[in-house]
Design goal:
The complex is a heterodimer of chains A (about 220) and B (about 350). With about 220 residues, chain A is mainly α. Chain A is built from eleven helices and no strands. Chain B contains eight helices and 20 strands. The longest helix of chain B is centred in the middle third of the chain and has 18 residues. Chain B is globular. Chain B starts with a strand and ends with a strand. Classes of the chains: A mainly alpha (about 220), B alpha+beta (about 350).
Chain lengths: ~220, ~350
């Protein structure tokens, strides 16, 4: 069984590649979207003072640990036929997965980039101003001094969506060649007794998760 | 008199902890070195932040080259770019020395072709040639301070504000930074305003010294202040402060020095008296001013210098001191502060 799995990996089995492709495509897209929302969110919270800031930060941190099935349920409610966005016909498409995964990791990228910005020495902004920076240049300087921690935040988000199964299953529907990704395929194949494909995918998932963690820790170390 | 590069009128600022900065009037002449002296928490940094337009005052006006600056107006950035401040315990960005040095050039969109030559020029000035590719975290405190000053100098500011440039560094580097301040002022004509809590250092380095205590300007100037060349003979050290007057001192310093004689340590008498004190001069009383419990006597020695002595009211009455009368003044060589 194990040799069968290895053989699939070596011969680049078409079905295997298609499944990996769906995973990569959906995860990258949702990470990009969540980055575009999460980083400005974290940056905005860190540089502005507003009423309820501490509560907002606490909520954001709590949302980091929200179960995938809860997000799946929530988005399902929005996208199902009876839901407010049901007419868009997005349920059981990769887009539904992207939406769910993006919502899942906005708090992760937001909270981690908030702490990334907060960990930048407070004197950076002031120093930039003494050197003649305008407001934007000073903000960019703070941003660039926190760039490794920000990269780590993005990678943490990617790692989370790449390995999640609840949202993909509930919103994607595990449709072969369309929304079937690594995690849903493993769940299905194992359930059907097809251990070889499941194992091959498991190896891929582990390898990718391991690489992601290596990169994540590299950036975290560099930033400190 | 040169025009002031900076002038403030009725400047106030408040802090949450109850601190109040209140400066009715203060001006700094262009092209000079100005020392701002005061203890920690006196308001020196606050004043510098206001002058550098990093924060706005609660009230009052700051004039840069006699032009009132409104922090929210569009030309405030232009004015801010004519001066640079090196903060206390300065921060270098976490990257190379080169990238730190060009940060301000980048903000000003100065042509990249100039960067390399300007970087090596300022690194030479601060005595750190070849440091371009070093990383900020590899530098010692003294080196960090000098790179921070170089990062300011590369912008060729008209006014350089240095907040406590001598704290956080060891004694050997204090001399280096002191020389650097003088060199920059002489070579580039840069007006320099620095803060310190060492009044002697302020007098040694600067053309003007302003004392600030409790958020306001006070008259904390050194009295009986002179400068001269330190000489030694027969086991005695002395400084000639005018053609016919030399003052015996005790010090470890050499070369050109300053000295200050505390007015409380000067003894007045009608006749010269035998004592261990090494400095005795005949003087004419020029002025007698009554203060709270003391009398401030201004004396003239040989028509060359003036000295101030503080005595008690009782002594004044017993000695019958009057303007125009002659007295002898005496003080110990160990009373003289040499710096």
């Amino acid at each position: 069984m194990f040799s069968q799995a290895v053989e699939m990996l070596i011969t680049l089995d078409r079905e295997l590649l298609a499944i990996i492709f769906v995973s990569v495509k959906v995860s990258v897209l949702s990470t990009v979207l969540a980055t575009l929302i999460g980083i400005p969110l974290g940056f905005g919270i860190s540089i502005t003072d507003f009423w309820g800031k501490r509560v907002t930060i606490t909520i954001l941190n709590t949302l980091m640990a929200v179960p995938t099935v809860v997000v799946g349920l929530f988005v399902y409610g929005l996208l199902s036929h009876q839901g407010p966005f049901g007419s868009l016909g997005l349920l059981y498409t990769p887009w539904a997965m992207v939406i769910g995964q993006t919502i899942l990791i906005i708090p992760i990228i937001g909270a981690l980039s908030l702490s990334a910005i907060q960990s930048v020495d407070r004197r950076v902004e002031r120093t930039a101003l003494t050197l003649g920076a305008n407001r934007w240049q000073a903000a960019f300087m703070v941003f660039s001094q926190g760039k490794y921690a920000l990269l780590a935040a993005i990678i943490a988000g990617f790692g989370r969506v790449f390995a999640e199964v609840g949202i993909s299953m509930m919103l994607g529907g595990n449709i072969r060649g369309y929304t079937r990704n690594i995690t849903t395929a493993i769940a299905l194949e194992t359930g059907q007794g097809e251990f070889a494909l499941g194992l091959a995918l498991g190896i891929v998932l582990l390898a990718i998760a391991f690489s992601i963690n290596l990169v994540f820790h590299y950036f975290q170390r560099t930033s400190s | 008199m040169a025009e002031p590069i900076l002038r403030v009128e009725n400047l106030t600022q408040y802090r949450d902890d109850g601190f109040v900065l209140d400066i009715p009037h203060l001006a700094f002449q262009s092209g000079k070195i100005h020392g701002l002296v005061g203890p920690n928490g006196a308001g020196k940094s606050t004043l510098l932040y206001l002058l550098n337009l990093l924060e706005g005052p609660a009230s009052g006006v700051i004039y840069f080259r006699e032009q009132a600056i409104n922090r929210s107006s569009s030309d405030a950035l232009d004015v801010r770019r004519k001066m640079t401040m090196v903060m206390e315990n300065p921060l270098l960005f976490q990257t190379t020395v080169f990238r730190n040095l060009v940060a301000g050039l980048r903000f000003r969109s100065i042509n990249r072709k100039q960067w390399t030559s300007r970087v090596s020029e300022v690194l030479d000035t601060v005595g750190l040639p070849g440091f371009e590719m070093r990383y900020a975290h590899e530098l010692s405190r003294g080196e960090t301070q000098r790179v921070a000053i170089a990062r300011a100098l590369i912008l060729k500011p008209e006014l350089l504000l240095l907040d406590e440039p001598f704290s956080h560094i060891d004694k050997e580097h204090v001399r280096t930074i002191e020389r650097l301040i003088t060199t920059v002022n002489e070579q580039y004509g840069t007006t320099i305003l620095f803060t310190t809590h060492d009044i002697l250092q302020a007098y040694r380095l600067s053309d003007t010294v302003t004392s600030i205590v409790g958020g306001t300007i006070v008259d904390g100037s050194l009295e009986n202040l002179f400068a001269g060349q330190l000489e030694a003979s027969d086991g005695l050290q002395w400084i000639r402060i005018s053609p016919s007057i030399r003052i015996t001192v005790v010090t470890d310093l050499t070369g050109k020095v300053h000295l200050s004689i505390p007015p409380r340590d000067i003894i007045l008498s009608h006749e010269p008296f035998q004592s261990t004190a090494r400095n005795t001069f005949r003087a004419t009383i020029q002025k007698v001013q009554l203060e709270d419990h003391t009398v401030r006597v201004t004396l003239n020695i040989a028509g060359e210098i003036e000295l101030t002595a503080l005595i008690t009211i009782t002594s004044l009455n017993e000695l019958h001191l009057m303007v125009g009368s002659h007295v002898f003044l005496t003080f110990k060589s160990t009373s003289v502060t040499v710096f």
